Amino acid sequence: REPLSASMLASALPHVQKQMIGDRLYPLIYALHSELAGKITGMLLEIDNSELLHMLESPESLNAKVEEALIMLQAHQAEEQTD
Amino acid sequence: SNGSSVNWPPEFHPGVPWKGLQSIDP
Question: What is the ipTM of this complex?
């Protein structure tokens, strides 16, 4: 499977662009947090496409963002429970 | 008790059309 490029994305509609990135991102996140992969991927897809492409190429960037998303998600869930 | 924040974040499923942002935006 060839890497996702900006030019490949440019030819797709905006919501399809997110779909294309999500399809690449999800397996990488699943390997880190299988149970929360869907939610974490959904959160990360709110980031700019250019940064998402960078994350696909850079495991360190991806890991950092996944950890950030995980903290936000846990804080959100804690808030829901105490509300 | 059925606030929309409970549905956050939108969950991505591989192979399923993504409409996460559309479901959040008005």
Answer: 0.85
